[in-house]
Amino acid sequence: MLVTDGILDREFQPEYNITITATDAGSPSLSSVKVLTIMVNDINDNPPTFKQSKYDANILENQPVGTFVMKVNAEDIDDGSNSKILYQISRDTNSEVSSFLTINSETGELFTSRLFDYEQLVHFQIKVTARDGGDPPLSTTCTVNVLDINDHAPVFPNKDTPVRLEISESAVVGVQFPLQSAEDQDVGQNALQNYVLSPNDNFILKQHANPDGSKYVEMVLQKPLDREQHPHLSLKLIAVDGGTPQRSGTVNIDITVLDVNDNAPVFNQSMYKASVMENTMKGTSIVTVNATDADSGSNGLISYSLSKMKGSAANIFSIDEITGTISVAGQIDYEKDRKYEVRVEAKDQGGLTGTSKVILDVFDINDNAPVINIMSFSSPVSEDARPGTTIAVLNIKDADSEKNGQIKCSIDGKLPFKIDSSLTNYYNLISDQYFDRESVPEYNITITATDLGSPPLSSSTKLHLKISDVNDNPPLFDKNSYSAYITENNSPGVSIFAVSARDSDWNQNARISYLLEEIQVNGSPVSTYVSLNSETGVLNAVRSFDYEQIKQLQLIVKAQDGGSPPLSSNVSVKIMIQDQNDNPPQVLYPVQTGGSLLAEMVPRSADVGYLVTKVVAVDVDSGQNAWLSYKLQKATDRALFEHPNPDGSKHCEIVLQKPLDREQRPSLSLKLIAVDGGAPQRSGTVNIDITVLDANDNVPVFNQSVYKASVMENTMKGTSIVTVNATDADSGSNGLITYSLSQMKGSAADIFNIDEITGTISVAGQIDYEKDRKYELRVEAKDQGGLIGTSKLHLKISDVNDNPPLFDKNSYSSYITENNSPGVSIFAVSARDSDWNQNARISYLLEEIQVNGSPVSTYVSLNSKTGVLNAVRSFDYEQIKQVQLVVKAQDGGSPPLSSNVTVKLIIRDQNDNPPQVLYPVQTGGSLVAEMVPRSADVGYLVTKVVAVDVDSGQNAWLSYKLQKATDRALFEVGLQNGEIRTIRQVTDKDAVKQRLTVIVEDNGQPSRSATFTDFTHDKEYNDRLTFYLVLALAVVSFLFITCLVVIISVKIYRWRQSRILYHSNLPVIPYYPPRYSGTLGTGTLQHVYNYEVCRTTDSRKSDCNCIDREQLNTELSLSAPWTASQLFQQ
């Protein structure tokens, strides 16, 4: 037998493993082993034990009923039902105190059952008993202290409105500024204890106490204020109480420091340097000075002026008293002053002045032309002067400086002179070759002096130089020899002819005298025949000549000038005597004697041509004078006789020896001389003009092979561009030219035409630079004979700003994801301009419009060159869905052209907001509890989770999932609607408390989620239910009988009172207390209402109607003396 040897303690050792060995007494002995496991059964010998003997908790007053306060926890080391612990508030706790709290018998959690009021109950103590499930049950007690906490913070009267103070910066140290006091509803140590001022350098706090113990505070200035360093001070006044945890209230103090004029204007530079060109136009800005005044208001307003300036500077410069811009007010001349020093003053409205100095350097421009002074000039100059002879000395000066004052001197034209510079600014005009007065008797010399400025300036002077004569040319006769004729029988002294000589010299050297050289003619001096006028050179006959005696005279004439020494020349003169018909013919045959007539016999049969007779006559004269012609002066019948010319006739033929060219020589002049055989010889001349007739053998030729011209686009029709010119060497109709344009490609034929007569090419259509930037035209010149000459015209089209920029699209749409980084590039607009160069240079502008009350520039910025839109801020889709703006593209033409485009920026949602659970409402860290009856069927709606996501689109699609559950097989959550339903019948085996954690997840990438924890409680149905039902039925029956007796008594009493009041004349003043409602209990649809009704004694006669009996589904409590049934009866 196995017996115990001591007291067993299951809590110490719940089981024993015993090894039993049985051994016999044999030899050798044999044995066997058996292991026994003994389980120790539990008895209820250990009471529950609290982990703490005393619990403390703090709770805010006025917390709603059901607020979690704390949790007590006890342990029982027994097993099974002996260790199952139930909690309850001990009955020895004050009943009034215990009515404030309820305890969960299973968990030990304490909840409020009434509203706490700190002013009525500061703290209280209750006892909690933990009882196990043994038989008999064991229990233990702990003490719970519930204390009020510091739930009121000090509050300033106007905590949302900052205290505003205006303090002059000249305020003295120690001045005090009272501040408003804070109030704290708490009392004692939790009440207001102290004030604290935020750290600063200027103010400290000084606290005072009122007779009632309250505190007030003043702010004291401990360091002078300086508005220029800190124009505004923002301080915080903090009121703190003495509670735990400590609470505080704050009010902002905004201090505006008022300005005092204690700062003089200060220039940003002690000295300014600038430069200005001379002759700068009046009003031109040179430099802008800038001074600042640390003061504000009128003390900081600055006016600029120029202090007293020396010389002419006061009339040359002025300053804008507002902007400080120094500009030109007079004439700046570099040659007068090369530098100016100006003193600038800046004065504020308080009279304080700051100064600075401005140094202005004047830059020279080429505004002075060289000045030419003639120091000496020699005129006339002898023509035998040697090369290098100084003609004139010039002094040339230029008032400008450097290159603008450097001079280059030159002579206009090709003249035999040159300029030599000997000294600075002195120039010599010297001869470069020998003079010849006879070739050039005088010179007009233009001397030009040009400086090296840009642009260069020049001046010139003219010298009139005369060349004096030297007798270096003898007289020259017009001919190498002279021949003259004189008719015989002349009168003595008659003028025969004149010789003529010229002398290239001048004045006396050119005065000519004519002399007759003495020679012998037929043994007599020549002077006996002729005389010579020494001044005119006229030869006169001294005697009457007879041709039959002398035929000619040969003499020499000398021409001598008046120079020293004189120069002369000779010429041979031949004077021929011409015969005069001074002798009549004499008839030699037939001889006629006396006055008788000669008779000739002529036969009748004489034929034509028959010779009747021959008359022979002679003349002692010669030549033509001796040629005899016969004329029939008188005749009976003139047709019967003729006198043929015995000399006959002669002719001259002109024969062409080579081809003629009209273009080289259109006409020829020939002089034909006919010479007779007389002596002296006489001749006759005839002029023959030969005109060469034209043939079409020359093509029209343009004066340029290629013409170049330019024309602006959009030039008006009919505007002349260029005139071409062609010539034809032919004449007449062969030289008439017509112009035309040929072989024009594309639209050129419609754009240009040419005047066929003048050759002027003009505009005939629309010129568009954007279609064609140049044209090459072929011009033809055609004469009347059909020959054609050609030339080219290169026509360049100049652009005109006639095309506005055009965007690629009529409107733009772009997307940007919210939460972008400021400055990120969104996208770019693009515009094109068909014009060229500056006209096609596009700038992008953002039209100022309002977006949600703010300028669009606070949302986006636009790069004016690239058209790239950048975000200025980070967008939030939940605040703004899209931004609509207008972008303007403007070209650089004059005037500029522009076009607008609408840009819509659509903000894309980003999954940046997690779902928010709206229902059930979960306050603080508490869990939401729901009640589920054990009789709930499959699909019973426990509750519905309602959540929203402020995102949009896919990011706002919510799905509900059951994340954690005490029993996943009991509940399910609708994926889309969030409904929590049972998926099977609730059984007694299911835990009374089911903890469900629901996760609400959106559909964004990455997804965001929120969780919600719910407690479900089964309504208890335990073994004691019958006992409690019977007990409740008995109590209700007792109460019903008692109420019935009371109601009957009250009705009798009221009936008696109403009789007294109804027949009396006392006024009745009804009182209607306010109705209030509170929320009690837990559940999905919590509707528990409290009604309080008070009625007067004569209310039975009123028209008051109450709710129907069927509508009363809530708990109803009525103040005495009525019950619910009496209320319905009323």
UniProtKB/TrEMBL annotation:
PANTHER family: CADHERIN-87A, PROTOCADHERIN 1 GAMMA 11 PRECURSOR-RELATED. GO terms for biological process: anatomical structure morphogenesis; homophilic cell adhesion via plasma membrane adhesion molecules. This is Cadherin domain-containing protein. GO terms for molecular function: calcium ion binding. It comes from Dicentrarchus labrax (European seabass). The chain crosses the membrane at residues 1025-1050. It comes from the Eukaryota. It is a single-pass type I membrane protein. PROSITE patterns: CADHERIN_1 (PS00232), CADHERIN_2 (PS50268). Residues 8-50, 51-156, 159-267, 268-372, 373-477, 478-587, 602-702, 703-807, 808-917, 932-1028 form the Cadherin domain. The keyword Nucleotidyltransferase does not apply. The lineage of its organism: Eukaryota, Metazoa, Chordata, Craniata, Vertebrata. GO terms for cellular component: plasma membrane. Keywords: Calcium, Cell adhesion, Cell membrane, Glycoprotein, Membrane, Repeat, Signal, Transmembrane, Transmembrane helix. Pfam families: Cadherin, Cadherin_C_2. InterPro entries: Cadherin-like_dom, Cadherin-like_sf, Cadherin_C, Cadherin_CS, Protocadherin/Cadherin-CA.
